[in-house]
């Protein structure tokens, strides 16, 4: 009986944890990507699931290519900046997105700073 109660508590806490990050991620996505605003709730959830799958695949590609996780984060930052997100919007998107996708440890350990990301972005974008 105790096991079932523990499992129920764990399930409830994990569900609300992801819901909070999902709502925050959707809000920021709408600020950067205007087409996201026209999606239904289920389409938004599908888009986020797809984005999580893409993030995981991109991370694995970076690791397989011998690149650092810092470089992976820089790539994700640049990707959303190139799409028109402001530095603050992109930072506000990446943290809840990485938490939602279960990659929170990566962003917590390997994110340098917004100034660092933006400085490198400006070097690349010319």
Short synopsis of the structure:
The radius of gyration is 16 Å and the shape is globular.
Describe this structure in words.
With 126 residues, this protein is mainly α. The chain has one domain (17-125). It has 6 helices and no strands. It has helices at residues 2-32, 41-64, 69-82, 87-100, 104-110, 114-125. Helix 1 packs antiparallel against helix 4 and helix 4 (87-100) crosses helix 5 (104-110). The longest helix has 31 residues, at 2-32. It is globular and about 35 Å long. Residues 4-17 have low confidence and may be disordered.
Radius of gyration: 16 Å
Order of helices and strands: HHHHHH
Largest sheet: none
Shape: globular
% residues in beta strands: under 5%
Mean of residue pLDDT values: 85
Class based on secondary structure composition and strand pairing: mainly alpha
Q: With helices defined by DSSP (H or I, 4 residues minimum), what is the helix count? A: 6
The N- to C-terminal Cα distance equals 62 Å
Weakly predicted, low-confidence segments: 4-17
Question: How helical, in percent, are the residues?
Answer: over 70%
**How many individual domains?**
1
Instruction: Count the E strands.
Output: 0
